[in-house]
Write a structure and sequence with these properties.
It is a single chain. This protein is α+β, with helices and mostly antiparallel strands. The chain is elongated. The protein has helices at about 30-50, 70-85, 105-110, and strands at about 10-15, 20, 55-60, 60-65. It has two domains: about 1-30, no CATH class; about 35-105, no CATH class. It has three helices and four strands, in the order E-E-H-E-E-H-H. Helix content is about 35%, strand content about 15%. The two termini are about 35 Å apart.
Length: about 120
């Protein structure tokens, strides 16, 4: 997630006579995962309420669409891509699957009875 140039001074360091500035939100930053997930929550809300994609969920930056038919799934996926491109949300082609019957989350997360606790 890019950092606005006016905030670069908040994420910079001076070390060995050099200045280093994070131009993207670093995950080592304590609040970064929360902020990143908040943006993903907002994108999911926009997809559901402004574009009618009722069967979309996300885990951090990974989105999952479920539809009754392959054609509906392709239509919803096309809408998601158009929305993301118009908002300049980066996408990764190598992480794009489907339509298929692949699982979204690890088996242990889909079936709570299989989750072990220490």
């Amino acid at each position: 997630m890019p950092i606005h140039p006016s905030d670069w001074n908040l994420l910079g360091i001076h070390w060995q006579a050099q200045y280093y500035v994070d131009l993207y939100l670093p995950f080592g930053l304590r609040s970064a995962p929360f902020l990143f997930n908040q943006v993903s929550d907002d994108l999911e809300w926009v997809l559901k309420h402004n574009y009618g994609l009722q069967h979309v969920i996300h885990i951090l930056g990974d989105y999952f669409i479920a539809e009754a038919t392959k054609v509906d799934c392709l239509g919803s996926f096309s809408t998601l891509l158009i929305v993301f491109m118009s908002l300049r949300v980066p996408t990764v082609a190598a992480k794009t699957l489907g339509p298929s019957h692949y699982g979204f989350a690890p088996h242990e997360l889909r079936h709570p009875k299989n989750v072990g606790y220490p």
